[in-house]
Amino acid sequence: MNLKKLLAAVAIAASFVPSAQAGLTMTAAGTAAGFSFSTFLSGYAPATYGPLSQAVLPNGNIITGSMSTDRVYVFKDVDGQTLADALVATPYAFETGNPQFSLANVGGQAYGGQVFGGRFYHFANDGSYVPIGGATGTDLTVYLGMWASAVTGKIISSTNRGLAEIDPVTGAYRIINGGVFPDGVSISPDGKTVYVENGGVIQSYSVATGALIRTYFSTGGHGADGTGVITGGLYDGDVIVNNNDGTVGLLDVTADTMLIIASGGTRGDFTSADSSNGTLFISQTEEILRLSCGAGCTIGGPVTGLPEPTSLPLVVLALGGVAWVARRR
Fold first, then answer.
1. Per residue in 93-130, pLDDT tens?
2. Top mean-pLDDT range of 83-92, 135-144, 305-314
3. Which pLDDT does position 133 carry in this prediction?
4. Exposed, middle or buried, 191 (CB in 10 Å: 0-12/13-18/19+)?
5. Cα–Cα distance between 145 and 127 in angstroms, integer?
6. Phi, psi dihedrals of residue 78, rounded to the nearest 5°
7. Hey, is 14 helix, strand or coil?
8. Which residue from 124, 150, 158, 273 has the fewest beta carbons nearer than 10 Å?
9. Average of pLDDT values for 298-312?
């Protein structure tokens, strides 16, 4: 049995061990697979939607916001904060009927806009924002999720015209697929594949042609939402899925299986990459958690010289005889 199969076997066996903690908590399966949580920000009052997307500002701070508090917030990029720790807490004007900000990082800058009809903006270190170029009028507006490609330096976003690729400097854009209006947008590290939530499941599309590559039916039934692609390590190329039912899944994009690595949460929604350290922000209605995939990998961005893991937990040896479906790479 190779290492990947062995670790997967441990995860499946461990997933039947219940968690006794409240809130979104790593399952035994998730821990055995090498994932871990920390709390970036708490203190939001539970609401239909709480904190959603985040982005890294040019000075390294984190920008986020919430409709439930009508504020754009700026925080230091450290864990264990509450709303009272905000460096900036500025009221903002509602542009849409669901004025949550979807955010993305590209070229060391933060961009985003309010979902379901908002303009595209460039955010400054103080939390203020101004429209970007020609894509910011009524011609092209934000629909739902967005992500930035480290390969092209462009944003791929769900818009009123479908899935689009946008130059955040000039505002020029190209429609990738005019018939798809998805959520949960993220991009493979090579920039060739975009993963989206569409109709309650995760799908992959070609960035170049807009063609549907695959629909992942294993992600159905959980309320799939935000995504993030893993780079490096045992799960290179697989996708983290933040689910509306209070779980987080690990999607095997080869086998189309999803392992639940966290459960007991409220309502999972957007995910955002912390480009400074390779972790993934996971939103809930009342808090933002930070997901790490362990040694040798990042989530939502390319690996930059991280070593491959060289050892496995002792529990792997103890469960070495447990079999699981082979992962094909």
1. 888 888 889 999 988 999 999 999 999 999 999 999 99
2. 83-92
3. 77
4. middle
5. 20
6. -135, 160
7. helix
8. 124
9. 50
Domain boundaries, the chain: 3-318
Burial (CB count within 10 angstroms: exposed 0-12, middle 13-18, buried 19+), residue 170: exposed
Identify the residue whose tokens are 């972790």.
279
Tokens 């496995």 belong to residue? 312
Q: Mapping DSSP to helix (H, G, I), strand (E, B) and coil, where does residue 137 land?
A: coil
Token pair recorded at residue 57:
């500002």
Rounded CA-CA distance 44/84 in Å is 11
Enumerate the β-bridge partners of residue 248.
242, 262
Tokens of 293: 């995939």
Q: Please, which residues have CB within 8 angstroms of residue 82's CB and are 6 or more apart in sequence?
A: 41, 42, 43
Quick one: tokens of 130?
């101004």
Nearest to 8 by CA among 26, 33, 35: 33
Q: Helix or strand or coil: residue 135? A: helix
**Cβ contacts of residue 286 below 8 Å, gap of 6+?**
42, 43, 44, 45, 46, 50, 266
Q: Supply the pTM of this predicted model.
A: 0.85
Half-sphere exposure of 229 (CA within 13 A, CB side): 26
**CA–CA distance, 282 with 89 (Å, rounded to integer):** 21
Q: What are phi and psi of 6, to 5 degrees?
A: -65, -45
Residue-level pLDDT at 308: 35
User: How many C-beta neighbours within 10 Å does residue 148 have?
Assistant: 29
Side-chain half-sphere exposure of 312, counting CA atoms within 13 A: 21
Q: Output the six-digit token pair for 291.
A: 């997901």
> Is CATH 2.120.10.30 the classification given to domain 3-318?
yes
The alpha carbon of 210 is separated from its chain's Cα centroid by a whole number of angstroms, namely 21
272-285 confidence digits (pLDDT tens): 999 899 999 999 98
